[in-house]
Specification:
The protein has about 180 residues and is mainly α. The chain has two domains: about 1-45, no CATH class; about 55-165, Orthogonal Bundle (Arc Repressor Mutant, subunit A), CATH 1.10.10. Helix content is about 60%, strand content about 10%. The protein is built from eight helices and three strands. It has helices spanning about 1-15, 20-45, 45-50, 60-65, 75-80, 85-100, 120-140, 145-160; strands spanning about 75, 100-105, 110-120. A three-stranded antiparallel β-sheet has the order 1-3-2. A hairpin with a 2-residue loop joins strand 2 (about 100-105) and strand 3. Helix 4 (about 60-65) packs across helix 7 and helix 5 packs across helix 6. The radius of gyration is 21 Å and the shape is globular.
């Protein structure tokens, strides 16, 4: 069924220049259907990590640990990164402090500002988590052609930057993907 959706949608896109709301809705439904399978493929790429686990650290806590630079982030930066309130960021920080994965330090530039800094144990766990993610993504990308890998990176760059998708006229030749970081 999904090949049918892609073939018909691609044909409709070539004729009209963009997908209709109906086609987009079908594609959204298919993406939602495929997401658990894709995540399972990522998890299968590093089963020993899942067996060993990451302790009592939640996914959101791992996400933050993997993002924390060695000199840490202010609590405001933590909240902005996680897109949560300052209070929610503080609760998450309390849990990480309680597990000896981060410490709170006064900012040397402004002692009123508190920075969340990874401990050696937290930095090691973050690196282990990043390696787990790298292996999962590599296992997925190994299933794709080079053109699909480039297209996926372009999609990820677009989503991460928050910019709008290119219009068909600005996208360049059909099927061509702009290099990462290229202006649109």
């Amino acid at each position: 069924m999904y090949l049918n959706i892609l073939n018909l949608a691609a044909g409709g896109m070539a004729m009209a220049g963009s997908l209709t709301a109906g086609w987009r809705a079908q594609i959204v439904a298919r993406v939602v259907e495929l997401r658990p399978m894709v995540l399972a493929l990522m998890r299968e790429s590093a089963p020993e990590e899942l067996e060993a686990g990451f302790g009592h650290v939640t996914g959101r806590q791992l996400h933050l640990l993997a993002y924390l630079p060695p000199d840490g982030l202010t609590m405001g930066e933590v909240a902005a990164f996680l897109r949560v309130s300052g209070a929610a960021a503080s609760v998450l920080a309390d849990r990480l402090v309680g597990q000896d994965l981060v410490v709170r330090h006064a900012d040397p530039a402004d002692r009123r500002v508190v920075r969340l800094v990874p401990t050696p144990q937290g930095a090691a766990l973050a690196e282990r988590y990043r390696e787990y993610q790298r292996r999962g993504v590599a296992a997925l990308l190994d299933r794709l052609s080079d053109a699909q890998v480039v297209a996926w990176l372009d999609v990820m760059e677009t989503l991460a930057s928050g910019r709008e998708a290119a219009t068909p006229a600005a996208a360049g030749p059909a099927g061509a993907a702009a290099p990462a970081g290229a202006a649109r």
